[in-house]
Amino acid sequence: MNLKFMPTYVYLRLAAFILSILIFMLGYGSINLGLSAREETLQFKNNGVRVPGTLIGYRYFEGHGRFRAGDRPVFSYVANGAQFTYVVSDYGVATNLKKKVLATQKVTITYMPDNPERARIEQWNRGSMGVLEITLGTLICIGAFVLVYEGMRISSNQY
Question: What is the 3-state secondary structure (H, E, C) of 39-59?
Fold first, then answer.
């Protein structure tokens, strides 16, 4: 029985191609995430209604995923004549020092007129995150293409 093995450059090309597909998928996902974050930011900026918010207390949240367990600030605001509360789950755990800072901080809450419960705190908005994710995703995708090109070039020059 005579077994023939493929030359090493075939394995190099295949590995570079598979790795570049995985890297490209990561970059594409980052671009999509950035585009959706940017779209939401523009919706709030163009259509949102800004009102003052008042800290009314804290609500304890169990930790799950990337969020730690602890107190999260709860803000109250008036929209269309009705009182709403907004719990800031992405703020992080409010330590005693943060609670002292939050007690003195004035916040502006932006809500969507068609759905007043959909709100966010204007000062804490990461408006540049969408642009950052799009840029990072683009660089990752370019890196994937360079990896394929270099993998093909190196393996073809060696044999």
Answer: HHHHHHHHHCEEEEEEEEEEE
Structure tokens at 104: 């003195």
Long-range CB pairs of 122-126 (<8 Å, 24+ gap) are: 122/50, 124/88, 124/91, 125/41, 125/44, 126/37
Q: What is the pLDDT of residues 115-125, one digit of tens each?
A: 888 888 877 76
Q: Which residues of 8-42 are buried (b: 16+ CB within 10 A; e: fewer)?
A: ebeebbeebeeebeebbebbeebbebbeebbeebe
Residue 20 pLDDT class (50, 70, 90 cuts): confident
Quick check: 74 and 55 in contact, CB under 8 A?
Answer: yes
CA-based radius of gyration for the chain: 25
**Within 10 A of 73 (CB to CB), how many other CB atoms are there?**
24
The DSSP H or E segment spanning 82 is strand 82-87
pTM of the predicted structure, to 2 decimals: 0.64
DSSP secondary structure letter of residue 5: P
pLDDT exceeds 70 at position 128: no
94 residue type, one letter: A
Q: Say what the pLDDT of residue 138 is.
A: 92
